[in-house]
Amino acid sequence: MRRILPVLLSAALLTGCNAAVPSAATSEAAQTPAPSETPTVTPAATPEPGLPYEEIRTPVCYDSAPARPCEGYFTMEQNGLWGLMRADGTELLPCKAASPVSQCGAAGHWIWFASLGAEKFDEYAAHLEASGDGTLCGGHGGLSNSFFYNLDAPGLDRSGADLTGLYCYRLSEQGQVIPMQEIPLADQLWDLYGDLLPVYSAHLEGGAGDPAWPGPLVESACGDGAPIKWWYISRQGYANFTPDLDQAGWFFDEALAPVETQGHWAYLDREGNLVTEAVYDPVCDTARDQTTGEVKPDAAWAAHMQNGYAVVRQGDAWGLLDDTGAEVIPCEKAGVAWEGSTLWVKEDGGWVRTEPPTA
After folding, report:
1. 256 — phi, psi (to 5°)?
2. How far apart are CA 233 and CA 82, in angstroms?
3. N or C, where is the chain less crowded by C-beta within 10 Å?
């Protein structure tokens, strides 16, 4: 890859950050010694027989809902705790956090909930900056984009997919609903998320001095009565109405997007056709306890395609999907990890780095 419901939006807000992103390591940071237990950041060959982690997962960035996958890094788990490594296997943060490492919405700001104390936190943050791998997130706030179809848009043509109904919901401390056509940099958003955007239909709520927000999803129906929940609208103004989608992910500039239907995940092509069966389980992002708001390490989303491939899972069996919907690695492996450039496969002796096969 070149470059929501209210539950998902709330998760994005809680993981935002408004701290500044370091453009380069300062001389002071460069002189800060790394914590004693922090591994070297010098890239090294994969240890033999392989990396010892129990799971390796692509981190996500919470500047959108659904969250976008990161590139160049993995979050890995050992003994129930999570850390961060470069795609080449270089460990940057040890496995000491209760949930997978992610980015808060600012590029390079890593969320690593490890109970180390302020001094150690600052040491690790300085170490990351000095190595050119970002820093640790030290605050909350931030901004997250999602899109919905506003059924209350002025002058909305209800006979088809009218682009005047496409709105961006920018979730921050206040929340902001903006018609896509009134965003000065709308073309940049189309370029970032792709020219097919996942949306759901909703009425506006709020007002009378309060910020507006999209209300609950409003279902419609196909001609045969099949329910339409999430659907896709294009930059050119046409729509793909695939029945019974409970969640829908980004296409970006890829051929397929992950969608959830009937409790499992499948992959959808740009014409709105399911090119796989809905048989896959989540492999990335994290779940959140709806009562306490606590982040849980359980994966919540299927993988978005990155450079033509996506990790897939059925139960404890992992594989790799290509952009035709074929499993170029059948779901038979103990683990598979891919972030757009580097493929790791879990064998009996640990995780080994390999090249993606072709169909």
Report:
1. -130, 155
2. 37
3. C
Residue 110: strand pairing partners: 103, 136
- Cβ-proximal residues to 282 (8 Å cutoff; 6+ apart), any chain: 265, 298, 299, 300, 301, 302, 313
Contacts within 8 Å (CB) and 24+ apart, 290-297: 290/7, 293/10, 293/14, 295/11, 295/15, 295/98, 295/99, 295/113, 296/99, 297/77, 297/80, 297/82, 297/98, 297/99, 297/100
pTM over 0.90: no
Pairing type for strands 196-202 and 144-150 reads parallel
Structure token pair of residue 337: 């990890």
Judged by DSSP in three states, 118 sits in helix
How distant, in Å, are the alpha carbons of 38, 162, 204 from that of 270?
A: 44, 19, 28
Residue by residue, pLDDT tens for the chain (359 residues) are 433 333 333 333 333 343 333 333 333 333 333 344 444 433 344 555 699 999 999 999 999 999 999 999 999 999 999 999 999 999 999 999 999 999 988 778 999 988 888 899 999 999 999 999 999 987 765 678 999 999 999 999 988 889 999 999 988 767 789 999 999 999 999 999 999 999 999 999 986 767 889 999 999 998 888 999 999 999 999 999 999 999 999 999 999 999 999 999 999 999 999 999 999 999 999 987 767 777 788 999 999 999 999 999 999 999 999 999 999 999 999 999 999 999 999 998 899 999 998 75
3-state secondary structure of 280: strand
